[in-house]
Amino acid sequence: MDPFPGPSHGTPAGLRRDHGTSGLDEKDLAGARMQWRSVAETLFPALMTDPAGYAGAVEAIGAVAAAFTARSAGLAELAAAFAEPERCLADLGVPMRPGVPPVLLVATACAMRERVLITEDVRRCRAEAVRRAREAGRCWAVLQGPDRVEELTGGGTGGPSACSHLHLPSGTELRATIDAWSTSPFRVDVIPADGGAPSGAAFGRREPWLTEFAQRRSEIEQRAGSGPRRGQE
Q: pTM of this prediction?
């Protein structure tokens, strides 16, 4: 069995600079992402006994990842490259590495670029949430999940399992999460803006978790001297 299986979906033609779907639907794209992540995780185990090969692979991966960044490659472009790894390396002028499957090099570079895209998307969403809150005259911006923690039901039921609210006057972030697999599934965390250590607590029941969230929220507002504003009661 090939330890580095390539993509099983249709093969788009090469690395593209446009931001179209390259013929892939959302299901195909999600499948490609899962595959390149899986292949990328085999990099170290596959080459751990070959330091020179590992160093060469890392160099090649860096070159491919840099090319993805320079081209502002999106997910569709990454899927196209992953579908034809040999062609991708040839198009970018990155030489093959003896003993290292091309799909391993390209998959790892795809995973690296994907993480960058995710980070950029989170930053954009965060900035948009802050903008909307300020325009509405609110002191809390909803970065993730619902406005009200009571709406969290847990991923196992198909509903949201996390919310993250940013207190604009202080920059403090308040998070609530539900982990259905934990013995204490309900958690509240406070992340200070000054880079200090986060603080939090986990609960086995929903009621004390909701109380903790409300108390933490009130404490943050009181320390900053800001109370609820329009739409935040």
A: 0.68
Q: What is the pLDDT of residue 158?
A: 58
Can you name the residues that pair with 191 across neighbouring β-strands? 173
Distance CA 161, CA 61 (A): 35
- Alpha carbon separation from 78 to 6, 95, 101, 111, 179 (Å, rounded): 13, 19, 17, 9, 31
Residue 123 three-state SS: helix
- Give 197's DSSP letter: P
* Angle (nearest 5°) at CA 119 between 114 and 123: 145
**DSSP line for 16-75:** -SS-S-TT--HHHHHHHHHHHHHHHTTHHHHHTT-HHHHHHHHHHHHHHHHHHHHTT--H
Share of residues in the chain with pLDDT > 90 (%):
67
Determine if residue 145 is left, alpha or beta; phi over 0 gives left, psi from -120 to 50 gives alpha, anything else beta. Answer: left
Phi and psi (nearest 5°) for 177?
-140, 155
Tens-digit pLDDT profile for residues 170-195: 999 999 999 988 899 999 999 999 88
Q: Which residue has the higher pLDDT, 49 or 106?
A: 106
Phi and psi dihedrals of 165, rounded to 5?
-120, 135
Question: Quick check: helix, strand or coil at residue 99?
Answer: coil
Distance CA 138, CA 169 (A): 10
